[in-house]
Design goal:
The chain is α+β, with helices and mostly antiparallel strands. It is 30% helix and 31% strand. An 11-stranded antiparallel beta sheet has the order 1-8-7-3-2-10-11-20-21-9-17. Strand 7 and strand 8 form a beta hairpin. The longest helix has 20 residues. The protein is globular, with a radius of gyration of 21 Å.
């Protein structure tokens, strides 16, 4: 069942209304999930409350209710989690809000009521003022020395024929300055900070695949605020596409530089071949095709090279089986994938967490996931009770890479996350 509420506006206004509704839900004491950018044919998908619980990867995005909306994530390292929404609000290109899900239209359903109130608020308030601005985070500078050593190790492995390319990640760290006293609910403070941080940056940068999940800190499930520009798996029934990113330059450079870069083009084409292999494991024979090769598109702080691979799937293939065949995403591992994953475990000084995993939602036979890059992870330290914030940033390494050039790419990608707006 779906209902509709209408208000027109520009693309920037639509983004602002989506983030304003999210902020209003958090301010009202809810634990919302949000997908903002380009999701399921809409500008935003918003749920008032999602209770995330840990699950096995084989159970991810599964439900006995065919009309359920399920939000969740599979981290690169760590435990998967998902949770169902009673109903969702969908923001269309024309500014209309639609409602869908089992609780839709029920005047006694608290989630449906909460979404209606938040949408009314957002239509009347173009600015994200439901939450106080996120207090500045004091990020560390990342481990440049270890990252550059990893780049050199990767180049040696390429020269030795062990791999052709890998994606090396580094992590940046901060701590949320929520006072620890009996009157402060640290979980709610973290959710409010993450919501304000996410809303301000989505409004400024408008990433294509932004995602927000409320987490469950006491259960070890992080709050995720993702500014991802990258699609992982976009499934509609039997059709699936994967659009890896490989190739990056800062936003103040000419985008034509990417198409003149042998290094960036080589990265992209190698990853396209890996995506074809991954999808080919579960696709119908002869249906895997490259439908777009080497397109230059903007993303927060940078220009990227994108390519798209499509395939047709067997009718009975579950979402979890599709994810398993393609996970981790090709663009964040390397070729050959299994050896690249082994070497990355040696070269990177700490686990990736949610970074380089996947975040998104499913609805019936539809599944949409981003690649969890440009993503802030809020987690509670089990010993101190303080909330840590971490963000992973990575980049593809080929034989033509230099340690200095790769660190400059890390800084360009990290800027929208680490610099204060």
């Amino acid at each position: 069942m779906s209902t509709r509420s209408t208000s027109s506006g520009s693309a920037a206004d639509l983004t602002s209304r989506a983030t304003s509704a999210l902020a209003r839900l958090i301010a009202a004491g809810h634990r919302p999930a949000a997908l903002i950018g380009s999701w399921f044919g809409y500008r935003a998908v918003l749920a008032a409350n999602v209770e995330l619980s840990a699950c096995k990867p084989a159970e991810l995005f599964s439900s006995s209710a065919p009309d359920s909306w399920i939000f969740g994530f599979r981290p690169y390292s760590g435990t998967s989690a998902h949770g169902a929404a009673a109903c969702v609000a969908l923001l269309a290109d024309d500014g209309s809000w639609h409602f869908d899900g089992p609780g839709t239209g029920d005047p006694l359903n608290p989630d449906f009521q909460a979404l209606q109130e938040a949408i009314t608020y957002s239509n009347e308030n173009a600015r994200d003022d439901a939450l106080s601005a996120a207090s500045p985070l004091e990020w560390d500078q990342g481990d440049r020395v270890r990252h550059q050593l990893a780049v050199e190790s990767c180049k040696e492995a390429i020269a030795a024929g062990e791999v052709y390319q890998t994606c090396i990640s580094t992590r940046f760290h901060a701590e949320l300055n929520a006072e620890l006293d009996p009157d402060v609910d640290v979980d709610n403070a973290a959710l409010a900070h993450a919501g304000a941080w996410f809303s301000s940056r989505v409004a400024r940068y408008r990433p294509a695949r932004a995602a927000f999940l409320p987490g469950n800190l006491d259960a070890g499930i992080p709050i995720l605020a993702s500014l991802s520009p990258e699609e992982f798996l976009i499934r509609s029934g039997a059709t699936v596409t994967e659009t890896p990113i490989k190739g990056t330059i800062p936003a103040d450079h000419s985008p034509d530089e990417l198409l003149r870069s042998d290094k960036d083009i080589a990265e992209n084409i190698m990853i396209v071949d890996l995506v074809r292999h991954d999808l080919g494991q579960v696709a119908k024979t002869g249906t895997v095709k490259v439908t777009d090769l080497l397109s230059v598109r903007p993303a927060p702080g940078v220009w990227h090279l994108f390519s798209t691979v499509s395939a047709e799937l067997p009718d009975q293939l579950s979402h979890a089986e599709l994810i398993a065949a393609c996970f981790p995403p090709a663009s964040v591992t390397g070729t050959p994938k299994l050896r690249a994953i082994e070497l990355l475990r040696e070269w990177e000084p700490e686990p990736r967490g949610a970074h380089c995993g996947a975040i998104g939602a499913s609805h019936g036979d539809a599944l949409e996931l981003n690649v969890a890059i440009r993503t802030a992870e809020y987690a509670k330290d089990p010993n101190s009770g303080r909330v840590r914030v971490e963000a992973g940033i990575g980049g593809g390494i080929t034989i033509g890479s230099t340690p200095e050039g790769e660190w400059a790419e890390i800084e360009a990608k990290a800027a929208p996350l680490l610099l204060e707006s």
